[in-house]
């Protein structure tokens, strides 16, 4: 009997030892900082040092062409050929799933742990279960509409059908994602608003940026960009503000107060009033990404101030480098070089 008990104790000891040995320990190297989605993976910048390909280095899982990175609670979610998730402190893999042809954007929707994901390659919005990491339904946005982005406004999600160089689209799609506490994914209608809508801000009803038609090989067909105010409940246009001599406007962002907008265009980065007036070029640098943050800085050694900071890249000459621009100082204040072309920038 003693031998049996001794054998059981030894077996339990070795079982525990093996279990402990197989549990990896992940260092909390990340958390607060700048995250850059690139063609080579995800890079992290803590204000001093850049660490490249953090998801692959932590988990040994290859990740590339990351179109978007966003955060929910203590997790980062990255959109590529699948949805990948990671703990924000350690970047330990927390699951991945789904298969997409050309996923380009996503938003979190409630109730339940869900996403709506734009799959531009299929002209669909796909409902995604975050807990089980799988696609649960999809919604057609129209044949060859090339949806490019989406934004939430209370219980509704608005999808921008961005078109392409060879095929123009002029519609937004409205999907209801909840009715009180009931999760939905119901197509509610569409609205014609202007040439190639591509981004929006959900303040003061809804402001949608339309790039217009822009084709370098056929400039005679180009049209000006515009800002359109939409009532998202009645699906009616309140007004349209044409931006004369502005082409290929995209990446609409706002300051914290919501009274100043920023966007990229064919010849630089611009600001404007939230009415679409007062358009002004800030940076004569062609960028295809834009992050706007309010940050503190030191005008002198003894004073502190706050300014909007613009994070952009040089998409034509150096797409792997991010430039941080201080609006108040009208100057660049930081340069951040990462591996791969920059596809998205976000801050946690």
Q: Quickly count the helices.
A: 2
Helix content: under 10%
**Overall 3D form:** globular
Number of structurally distinct domains: 1
Order of helices and strands: HEEEHEEEEEEEEEEEEEEEEEEEEEEEEE
State the secondary-structure class.
mainly beta
First and last CA, distance: 59 Å
CATH architecture: 7 Propeller
Superfamily (CATH H level) name: YVTN repeat-like/Quinoprotein amine dehydrogenase
Q: Please report which band the strand proportion falls in: under 5%, 5-15%, 15-25%, 25-35%, 35-45% or over 45%.
A: over 45%
Please describe what this structure looks like.
It is a single chain. The chain has two helices and 28 strands. It has 348 residues and is mainly beta. The chain has one domain (28-347): YVTN repeat-like/Quinoprotein amine dehydrogenase (Methylamine Dehydrogenase, Chain H), CATH 2.130.10.10. The protein has a four-stranded antiparallel β-sheet with strand order 3-2-1-28. It has a four-stranded antiparallel β-sheet with strand order 4-5-6-7. A hairpin with a 5-residue loop joins strand 20 (250-254) and strand 21 (260-265). The longest helix is centred in the first third of the chain and has 20 residues, at 2-21. Mean pLDDT is 93; it is low at 4-14.
């Amino acid at each position: 009997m003693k031998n049996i008990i001794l054998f059981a104790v030894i077996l339990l000891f070795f079982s525990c030892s093996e279990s402990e040995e197989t549990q990896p320990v992940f260092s909390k190297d990340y958390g607060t900082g700048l995250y850059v989605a690139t063609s080579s993976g995800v890079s992290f910048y803590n204000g001093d040092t850049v660490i490249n390909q953090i998801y692959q280095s932590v988990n040994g899982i290859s990740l590339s062409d990351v179109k978007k990175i966003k955060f929910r609670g203590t997790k980062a979610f990255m959109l590529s050929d699948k949805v990948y998730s990671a703990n924000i402190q350690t970047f330990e893999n927390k699951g991945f799933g789904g298969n997409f042809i050309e996923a380009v954007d996503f938003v979190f929707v409630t109730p339940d742990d869900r996403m709506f994901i734009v799959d531009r390659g299929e002209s669909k919005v796909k409902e995604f279960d975050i807990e089980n990491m799988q696609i649960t339904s999809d919604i057609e946005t129209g044949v060859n509409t090339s949806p490019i982005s989406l934004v939430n406004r209370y219980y509704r999600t608005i999808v921008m059908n961005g078109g392409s160089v060879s095929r123009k689209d002029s519609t937004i799609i409205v999907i209801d994602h909840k009715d009180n506490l009931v999760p939905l994914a119901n197509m509610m209608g569409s609205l014609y608003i202007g040439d190639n809508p591509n981004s929006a801000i959900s303040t003061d009803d809804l402001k949608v940026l339309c790039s217009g038609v822009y084709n370098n090989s056929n400039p005679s067909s180009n049209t000006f960009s515009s800002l359109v105010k939409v009532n998202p409940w009645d699906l009616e246009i309140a007004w349209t503000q044409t931006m004369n001599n502005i082409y290929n406007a995209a990446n609409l962002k706002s300051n914290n107060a919501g009274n100043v907008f920023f966007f990229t265009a064919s010849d630089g980065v611009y600001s404007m009033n939230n009415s679409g007036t007062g358009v002004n070029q800030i940076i004569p640098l062609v960028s295809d990404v834009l992050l706007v943050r309010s940050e503190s800085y030191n005008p002198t050694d003894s004073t502190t101030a706050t300014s909007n900071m613009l994070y952009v890249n040089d998409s034509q000459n150096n797409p792997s480098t991010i430039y941080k621009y201080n609006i108040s100082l009208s100057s660049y204040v930081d340069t951040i070089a990462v591996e791969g072309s920059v596809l998205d920038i976000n801050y946690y």
